[in-house]
Amino acid sequence: MKRLIDLRSDTVTLPPDAMRRAMHEAELGDDVYGEDPTVNALQEKAAERLGKQAGLLVTSGTQGNLASLLSHAGRGDHVLVGHQSHIFKYEAGAASVLGGLFLEPLTNREDGTFGEEQITAAVNPPDVHRAPTRVLAIENTHNLAGGAPVDAKATKRMAETAHAHGLKVHLDGARLFNAAVAFGTEAAALAEPADSVSVCLSKGLGCPLGSVVVGDDDFIGEARRWRKMLGGGMRQAGVVAAAGIYALDHMVDRLAEDHENARRLAYGLAEIQGIVLDPEAVRTNIIYFQTEQGISLDLAKRLEKRGILMDSEKTLARLVTHDGISSADIDLVLLAFAEALR
To answer: CA 156: distance to chain centroid?
Structure first.
């Protein structure tokens, strides 16, 4: 069977053999009782790496974001999100459907951030006619902004504005370690201004599933209750947590390789006639591009016949590098694109 070069997402990353061995050898207990030592070790490690008091293993980034928002706000409360944020576009309306939260989308800048004036203008004044504003949700890296990493200064600026209005700040940090590697800094520096942070283990870090949410002790206590209500109470979850521990110890620094492969792919694609792409905008492992004729299902089929899988939506396509993509694969992808667009 011909091997496919799968660039649809870093969620397709397969756990390395050493991670699988760690899962097999994990010491186990009942996590709902708080007795799984491997889960407890992961939660402590994640909290330490992100500069917070405590952590909580959840099943997915969507569950982590939802549990966080529900811990900060109640039914009928007003939450500010980006119009291109994952929470607003790709989480099935969970915050509204399951939590009764009123999401208001603020227009993301090209780098995925907001201006102070945007945040201030969107905060509702005390008024019986208006939902009370409780939370600002931000994203780093910002997927639909081309995987843009958001630096600590910008995060602090947005968080300080929100805090000045009495809001909590939740950071959807699904790919926060990609941002940290891109800036050559610690993830804790990027997470510091936020009251809660959700980080995926199942994307570039290579775990088969899971995310961690971190914050102060009171927040994690509330998030644990919401996790239970959302069906996320797991038992011998150390088999999952062991993968997370391995990822935090061994898979973070190697994200730089994914970034380099993405940059090389972006510069190569930009030289192919018919592709519309600014390679200078590629900072992490995500590439968005268009074609002069518009992205079509036919292009995706032509690439798949050449062994390349990509993600496309209307006029825009996405390529994501990850641990399963080598430098040699990049050469093959560029050749396939050149042939498909002749």
So the answer is: 19
73 in Cβ contact with 43 (< 8 Å): no
Judge if the upstream peptide bond of residue 141 is cis by omega within 30 degrees of 0: yes
Contact 322, 204 (CB under 8 A): yes
What's the pLDDT tens digit per position in 114-148? Answer: 999 999 999 999 999 999 999 999 999 999 999 99
Strands, E assignment, 125-167: 133-139
| pLDDT score recorded for residue 336 | 96
- The three-state DSSP-derived secondary structure of 168-236 is EEEEECCCHHHHHHHHCCCHHHHHCCCCEEEEECCCCCCCCCCEEEEECHHHHHHHHHHHHHCCCCCCC
Q: Are 202 and 173 in contact (CB under 8 A)?
A: no
**Cα–Cα distance, 312 to 288 (Å, whole number):** 9
Q: How many residues does the chain have?
A: 342
